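Please, structure for the following, as tokens.
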Amino acid sequence: MATVERADSPSETGQSATTVLFVDDEPEILELYDLLCRTEYTVLTADSGEAALEQFGDHVDVAFFDRRMPDTSGSELIGTVRDQGYQTPVGIISAVEPDAGGDVASDTYLTKPVTKDRLFETIEAHI
């Protein structure tokens, strides 16, 4: 499940939409984010840092990275997209508390589990 854009996303129906990229190494978590958000946003998902970087671009309005993944951490991904010149708002969604393990240079930090309302509030605050 490297990358998914749902056929019933707002962009596919001709509506103007915000594109949100979710990156997590757990397929079930990516499916949950997709189910929660696809009626309001164009949802892209990636299951690794490499897949995330392939998806990232000017079309992404907001991105959320898992803090701990096998190949690349969320912090490393943030550093990479910033080094590439993107100023896209990026957040971390993690089961790890933000003060555990050092500094994370994200625009927002959400602790799992994340409610739909909290997710939507966060997306709206950054677009």
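The beta strands are 3-5, 19-23, 42-46, 62-66, 90-94, 108-111. The helical segments are 27-37, 49-55, 74-83, 116-126.
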